[in-house]
Every structure is written in C-alpha cells, then in structure tokens.
Amino acid sequence: VIWRKASDPNPLTVGRESFHNNDRFQVEHETGEGTWNLVIHQARLSDAGVYECQVSSKLRHLRQHVLLTVKEKETNTTPMPRPDIKIAGTSFVEKDDQIHLICNATGLEHPPDYLDWFLNGNKLSMKNNNKISIREFVSITSRTIVSILEINDAQLSDSGMYVCRTSNLQIESMRVTVLN
Asked: SMART domains, per this entry (predicted)?
C-alpha cells in the first residue's frame, strides 16, 4: 500500500514505512480489517489537496483518491471581557429639581464589590443627608453593579464634578450644573 499526495510523484508512505521527512505523516494499519489509513497530525493549510492510495497485487492495481480540505482554526471572536464603567444622567438641572445619575460598572470575573459617589472630591453618603438617595443593583451573571444617585431639591452648591468609583478603583466622571 502506497500513500502519496497527487501533486507529488514521491510516496509519503510505502507499507508502514514513511518516506517523508516529517513525522506528522503516519500510516495506521488494521490487520483484521485490511485498512491502511493515512494519518496527518497537526494538519496545515498546505496539507490540503488530493491524496492517492495505491494497492498492488499480482492480479490488479487499485487507486483511490481522497480530497483533503483543511480549514483554518476558528478563532474565538468573542472579545475578552474587560472591566468597564459608564455614567449617565442629566448635565443641567433646574434649581429645586432632582439630580439623577446612573453608574454602571462591569467587572472582569465578577461585579465590583461596591460603588462610591463623590462630588468635587468629597464622598457622598445618605447618612445625615435626607436629600441624597443611593440605590445599588447587582447582577452576578452579567458581572455588573448599577448605582443610582438621586439628589432631591438641587441647589447651586450641588453643581460640580460627580465621580463614580468602583471597589477596584475604576472611575468615571460627569459634570452637573444646577441652573438658577
């Protein structure tokens, strides 16, 4: 039994012997089955083409052609998840109206543990300030945490740079101006 690539007159294998300088080409012979399979390890695009198996005996000479198609390995087109943070809300608010900001943060493997809000460098808290409301929602499956900051009865002193910061120190900011 001889295996060769149809485009090359030289045999790849004769019997169990390999005549190729590459160990990727081997023959598997099943004695009881009478099969002689050409095995190509780590197939490459250049291995594609027509292969010929020749079997000779005293009575006849048989040839069988096999078309080998090699496809490029599919790459994972899904981008690697990466941490991300976004802030949204109204940039301009009338005096005595409500400031409404939403911070959405995504973690690498799990959601950030918490989010903090800052106004002009000072951490905002609901303690001792009934104007401020901070609500958080966590989704394990989407690796996100959402924080909603609401400041009722907005005053000119509530104008400034609002910063949302995650437990892993991702930050995003947005300027809010309270109009008189």
From this structure: IG
Taking CB atoms within 8 Å and a gap of at least 24, the contacts of 23-31 are 27/1, 27/3, 29/1
Question: How many domains are contained in the chain?
Answer: 2
Instruction: Tell me the three state secondary structure of residue 145.
Output: strand
Question: CATH number of the domain that 147 lies in?
Answer: 2.60.40.10
95 and 163 in a single domain? The answer is yes
Could you tell me the pTM of the whole model? 0.56
CB neighbours (10 Å) of residue 70?
13
Write the DSSP string, 73-126.
Answer: PPP--SPPP--EEEEEE-SEEETTS-EEEEEEEE-SSS--S-EEEEETTEEP-S
- Residue 48 inside a domain? The answer is yes
Check whether residue 92 and residue 54 sit in a common domain. Answer: no
Contact in structure between 54 and 62 (CB atoms under 8 Å): yes
Residues 48-60 pLDDT 10s: 888 999 888 888 8
Looking at the structure, do residues 169 and 94 belong to the same domain, yes or no? yes
**Residue 145 domain boundaries:** 84-179
Q: How far apart are CA 41 and CA 171, in angstroms?
A: 49
